[in-house]
């Protein structure tokens, strides 16, 4: 049995979001093909995702200097404790499904905060004499990304920073398999929006069978 972490970064719902509706189709097809796998959903807009701020860095400095967790302030304990929970949950999963829209060429800030939360030396990667090495070498990842314009190819491809950043992150962390389905061009071709969505759902369902 595999554990799948379904990570969504969209404040809308399945009915009104292109990325979430395609993500839902992917998960349904995956569940049908893998009924024994466990799928855990983390909605980043509803979950507590601490930003890396002065309190977090201050708390980590204190602990690095030898202070016990109990010696941190209550706020520091809450943030460090939650960050630890997030990275442990991430490590516990065998597969990741990321679902996000593109906002101004990148993804919502809460997804970057989540990436920061699981980017932990000694857990998801480690430093060696030959440089950093990713530790997630037995994981798989998939992304479903929606954008009003076509960004995966064509004249705006160089502006796309969401998929490319996530791809770089996962490669750094050692994840050997990363694929994606794009739902894109709905704003540029409003009359074809539903056809674009239907095509992406079909691709997602097919991709789910081999994920």
UniProtKB/TrEMBL annotation:
Gene3D superfamilies: 3.40.50.360
Catalytic activity: N,N-dimethyl-1,4-phenylenediamine + anthranilate + 2 NAD(+) = 2-(4-dimethylaminophenyl)diazenylbenzoate + 2 NADH + 2 H(+); 2 a quinone + NADH + H(+) = 2 a 1,4-benzosemiquinone + NAD(+)
Pfam family for this entry, one: Flavodoxin_2
EC code: 1.6.5.-, 1.7.1.17
Domain Flavodoxin-like fold: 3-206
Taxonomy, superkingdom: Bacteria
Family indicated by similarity: Belongs to the azoreductase type 1 family.
Assembly and binders: Homodimer.
Entry protein name: FMN dependent NADH:quinone oxidoreductase
Source organism per UniProt: Cohnella ginsengisoli
The gene coding this protein: azoR
């Amino acid at each position: 049995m595999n554990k799948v972490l379904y990570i969504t970064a969209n404040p809308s719902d399945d009915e009104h979001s292109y990325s979430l509706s395609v993500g839902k189709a992917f998960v349904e097809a995956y569940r049908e093909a893998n009924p024994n796998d466990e799928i855990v959903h983390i909605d980043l807009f509803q979950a507590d995702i601490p930003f890396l701020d002065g309190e977090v860095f201050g708390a980590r400095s204190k602990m690095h200097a030898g202070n016990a967790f109990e010696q941190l302030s209550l706020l520091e304990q809450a943030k460090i404790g939650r960050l630890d929970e997030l990275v442990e949950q991430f490590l516990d999963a065998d597969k990741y499904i990321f679902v996000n829209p593109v906002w101004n060429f990148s993804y919502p800030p809460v997804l970057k905060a989540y990436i920061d939360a699981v980017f932990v030396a000694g857990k998801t990667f480690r430093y060696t004499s030959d440089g950093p090495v990713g530790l997630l070498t037995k994981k798989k990842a998939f992304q479903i990304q929606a954008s009003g314009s076509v960004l995966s190819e064509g004249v705006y491809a160089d502006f796309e920073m969401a998929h490319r950043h996530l791809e770089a992150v996962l490669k750094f962390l050692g994840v050997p398999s990363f694929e994606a389905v794009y739902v894109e061009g709905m704003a540029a071709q409003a009359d074809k929006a539903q056809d674009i969505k239907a095509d992406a759902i079909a691709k997602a369902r097919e991709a789910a069978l081999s994920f």
